[in-house]
Amino acid sequence: MKAESVKQIEGILEKCVTGALKRTKENKSFRPFHEALLTKEMVNASSFERSFSTSFGQGPIEEISKIVAVDSGHIVTRQKETIVNVYKGAIDEIERISSGLRSGELKPNWERELKNIQAFQKGDTVVRRVLSDLHLEKNNNHVFISIKTVKPNLDQTEKAKKDLLLLKAHNPKFETYFGLFYNPGGPKKTDYNWSIPSKIFDMINDPVVLIGEDYWDKLGGKGTYTKLLEIFARVGSKTRNEILSL
Length: 246
Hints:
Elements: H1 3-26, H2 32-38, H3 40-55, H4 58-71, E1 75-87, H5 88-103, H6 110-117, E2 125-138, E3 141-148, H7 154-170, E4 175-180, E5 209-211, H8 213-220, H9 224-244
Parallel strand pairs: 3-4, 4-5
Antiparallel strand pairs: 1-2, 2-3
Helix pairs in contact: 1-3, 1-4, 1-9, 2-3, 5-7
């Protein structure tokens, strides 16, 4: 990764940490029972972590993702609007799939779902607008990624699935992905254990799902995930003492 890209990522991380420190110091509250039971240091650390997690949300992750993808040679757009023109039969099939998955009548299977919607090749068409968190272009290849929190709710997941299916119905050559920037269950994709999105995607087997290492390496090439952890650790070594002194 280029030095300038690393510097940009470090700047985002330092800003998130500095902002969380400032908010924690400004919003300290007296909680004698918590402090008696847990210690003052633990209570302050908990307050800081909540503040940091709030600031280190969708925006910073999207921006770091963009930096990584640009570094690897992509033209990148955040919040990319795409107007799709899709056969009405495919629209109806996407709604049928979504309803069946949500109710539990269907089990998720990305390849089967693609085959079903792409079977519609004639009839009236419908125009829809799709907003993608990240769009990558390189060598005339278009990649669309819906980035979600690592424990997305059912509505978020269903909306993402519909958008990705609409993009594939519009142009089968598009690459589409449902991306989670880390795996809360463990280091491997098979460790993912948050059950809610598993109603909509097969989180373990669907190729459309990118989690943790797979997500970052898709953006920046093999080894990107490891490199990012090193960058985070380096920034952490500079900010940790101030956090501990809260």
